[in-house]
Amino acid sequence: MPPAGTPFGDRLAGLVAGRESQVVLGLDPDPANLWPQAAGDVAAHCRAVIDAAAEACVAVKPQVACFERLGVAGWRALHDTIAYAHDAGLLVLADAKRGDIDISARRYAEAFLAPGGLEADALTVSPYLGADSLEPFLAAARAAGAGLFVLVRTSNAGAADVQDLELATGGRVWERVAELVDGLGAAGSQSGLHEVGAVVGATAPEHLARARELMPRSVFLLPGIGAQGGRVEDVAPAFAPGRAGGLVTSSRSIVFAHERQGGEPAAAARAEAERLRAAAWALA
Question: Among this protein's residues, is 61 annotated catalytic?
Answer without folding.
Answer: no
